[in-house]
Amino acid sequence: MLNHWFHRQRVQYAFYKTKDNVNPRLAKNLAKIKKFDEEPALFAGYIKSGNTWLRFLIFNYFNIKACNATETLTYQELNKIQHESLGDPIEPSGPQPGFPYLARTHRHYSSVFDRFTKGIHIYRNPLDTLVSAYHFNKNQPESKQNSFVNVNHFVKNNLIYWELHTRSYLNQGHLLHVRYEDSQKDPIGELKKVIEYLGYTFEPKIAVKSIELSSFKSIKEMGREKNQKYGNGGPQYGAEFTRKGIIGSFHQELERSTIRFGFKTMNAFGYKSLLK
């Protein structure tokens, strides 16, 4: 436990010392965005927080509205409409007709993002998030893997990173904060908030269809049928990108000692009800 305390102190010190440092690639892509007439809304979340699912929900909604779509977008189509991430080696494509213009990042909030007048932040309880991140990490090519003995070690080590990342966004009052758990329990209500926040008229019938097309079952089937199971993990990813998305599934994967380790954080961020 003492080792974890020292780890937390080191991580927090490094975070606050460097949090406003700008990644050169991120800065370059932000500069490129300035050439477009329309200003994007920021779209942010810690890795494996439901980011991709919410993107499908939003962009399937507008694809149904614009094209009367009857099938979900594929991963490749989604990433053509809204480029993958500000930190990736990509060429920002700019706004696409008929769709909202979003700029996505997994990076913590810092002053470099103050330029965005609007932003959507999705967050999910830390134990489910980090379990999912562990599985994503272990299925990466060996050169990209972080060396953690098991999921319990991974969760304990990364909990502080989740805390700092999530709090950096929750401290920003101008953003729309979407709890993954709320979006699963009331997808219509949460999608309505997102659509109206972005400045569009909400149409319930389209929303119902988007929710159907964006279900985990639908997206998994699309990935298998279109040979895109790797999703946003890239062709080199060694597993199916879309896993379960089940609330509270950490109970089946973590030791009780790890869950107790995360109790304070879960309670502080409003997730006490998920602890048994």
TrEMBL record:
Origin: domain of life: Bacteria
Identification of the protein by name: Sulfotransferase family protein
Stated family: Belongs to the sulfotransferase 1 family.
Keyword Transferase: yes
Keywords assigned by UniProt, alphabetized: Transferase
Species of provenance: Owenweeksia hongkongensis (strain DSM 17368 / CIP 108786 / JCM 12287 / NRRL B-23963 / UST20020801)
InterPro entries (UniProt xref): P-loop_NTPase, Sulfotransferase_dom
A Pfam family the protein falls into: Sulfotransfer_1
Annotated ranges, domain Sulfotransferase: 41-260
Any one GO molecular function term: sulfotransferase activity
